Amino acid sequence: MSLSFRDLISSLTALRLVSHVPVIAHVDLNSLGEIDGGGATFLSALMNRIDTIMMPVFTYRTMIIPATGPENNGIIYNHRKAPHTHSEFFNPGMPADLEMGEVAELLRREPGALRSNHPVFFFTSIGVDATLRAQSVSDPLAPLRVLAELEGWVLLAGSDHTRNFNLHLAEQMAGRKTFIRWALTPDRIVELPNTPGCSRGFNQFAPLVEKIARQVRIGEGLLSTIPLRPMLHLAYDLMQADPNALLCNDPGCLMCDSIRQQTSSD
Ligand SMILES: [Zn+2]
Question: Cα of 47 to ligand 1 centre, how many Å?
Fold first, then answer.
């Protein structure tokens, strides 16, 4: 049986989110099962319950890999000097990558939605403009820091922690290494310092966060909300106790490998 607008409203209500408290939402509709009217219904239910919503609408396709660059940067450089056939020029009207999900793209197109100005890690929001204004090319995670100052919450809708991008801010707070990447813009190639690493190990965080999260089953998946600031502190403490926490187990992961090298030399 597919989920209706009313089902969504009652589940979101059960999470006891306060309408004026800003929320960053990470939505994976595929994990929730069928919804009458799809992503549009989900977004109207969300906007019915919450006045101020922010979502990541990233565009990894603007990234380009140069022929050379800094050492130990979690990347294989493009030594063949092949043309940038797979990269697209950044433009402010670009849609979000498909893997960001349908709801993120629908929010971006919503009347009144604003977007930040980073060529890869851009966010869109209704009502939380201060978070967007804080972002710069060298400080991609600034919107999350402002959201934490505003006592914002994280909503994971059908998403696991591998999509909980906010944990990268805890990594930054813990002094974890970041990376340099590059984006193609119409004027030039822009260097992107402080690019966060890999999130494939973030599900290690799930058992820990349960004590501060509220969870509701819906359809085939789960909605969970977590207060952002306490979540960052939990993740920070975890990395203080184990500097390799939240890294993935893929032996071929250059970014996690590079962070392990840093922690073993400290
Ligand atoms: Zn990794």
Answer: 34
